[in-house]
Amino acid sequence: MLRRTYSRFIFETIGDSRIFHHQRFVNDLQIDCPTCTSCVETREPYSRHWQNDHAAGTSHQIKMGPDERLLLKRIETERIEAFMLCDGSVSGRTNDFLLEAGMEAVPQLLRFLSFGAAKLEVTIGFYVNVKKERMYYESSPMIVEHHLDIVESVDMLFSMLLEKISNYVLLQQRVPLEACVIRRMKVTVKRHSNPISVQWRSTAKLPLQYRVKRLDTGTDNATIFAEICQSPRDIFHIGLLPDALQVNLYCFRVCASTKELYAVPYLIRHDDVENTPTFVIHTDIAGHFRGLQEIRNVRKFLRADRQDRVFECRKCKSRFGDRVQFALHKQIDCGRGFMVWHLEEDAIELHHNCLPLPKGYFKHDWFGLGTNTTIK
């Protein structure tokens, strides 16, 4: 039976306080989120609910201080695009390594590399040992157009790679996936630069979860932008907005418990959602303001996607209960471009000019690979 899940957020007013609740429903069973709750005075703007997310450790954003910026600049200067992750534990197990890599290591690396980039082109490869045979499985490139799409994109690439490996070793080696040993992987990332933006107007795309809704969006509301644009720089603060400006603003938030992405109000100047200009605030992975984008159908934008429908791929007949995963599956063409290489048992890869990524920032043993590689 397909598990139906969806979420909603509500605001409850008690006396002079406004309380935010995030509720999740699994097969119509309501579950109150333990981390997404906040209380402010009713006279405060909605943005006050979210201003302490970073300090409380519930923010999806990352720190990009001077040291981190210098590291990223070095990666760009030396044109490092490939990164190797190895399981350094003595008694490492494939399941533990893949779980930690998929949930933490790879998403953390991609978040770091997404800073200052319009999009990432990501390829993931696994080094596999099975029955004294060495192989390297690599995905086709996946385009990640928003930093909030990273987790779902990594999950899709990992799932598809493991499915391909499982089918291959079962057919060729007559063994299950559990017989494989995977303790090394390579992630190749091509960073695409941000286009030149017009003041206050965001050129970024919405997260995939909202793109699949096929929303009517735009940045051409010249009248509103002329009223907002009171500063010569893109400094966004609701205190700088003219009091007479009738506009509603929303921002994106990620649940610290379930990792769900949802949009929440940031500033509500008018209750007439149909006729009040509505914008979503775009920020980069470090939380820096990157402009506004108009949402012309706010009800469709905010409506939870009830996952009670199954999407079937016409090419491979795979079935999905989530539109985002279905869209990612189609982007990589059902995994048809995935490749496998057989490696000599005694082959040695020599990578010159490797760059160990600092453990003070990265939790895992990442190495940036120089452009010169020798295989003996």
Query: N-to-C terminal Cα separation, in Å?
Result: 51 Å
Structural class: alpha+beta
- Largest sheet features: 8 strands, antiparallel
Kindly state the number of beta strands: 20
Q: Report the order of strands and helices.
A: EEEHEHEEEHEHEHEEEEHEEHEEEEE
3D shape: globular
Q: Poorly predicted ranges (pLDDT <50, ≥5 residues)?
A: 231-235
| Oligomer category | single chain
Radius of gyration (Å) = 23 Å
Strand content: 25-35%
Overall pLDDT score: 85
Number of helices: 7
Helix content: 10-25%
Organism: Drosophila pseudoobscura pseudoobscura
Protein name: Protein terminus
Outline:
This protein has 376 residues and is of the alpha+beta class. The chain has helices spanning 66-77, 94-114, 150-172, 208-211, 222-228, 298-302, 323-331, and strands at residues 5-14, 17-26, 29-41, 82-86, 117-130, 133-138, 142-144, 181-193, 217-218, 248-254, 261-268, 278-283, 289-295, 311-312, 319-320, 339-343, 349-351, 355-356, 366-369, 373-375.
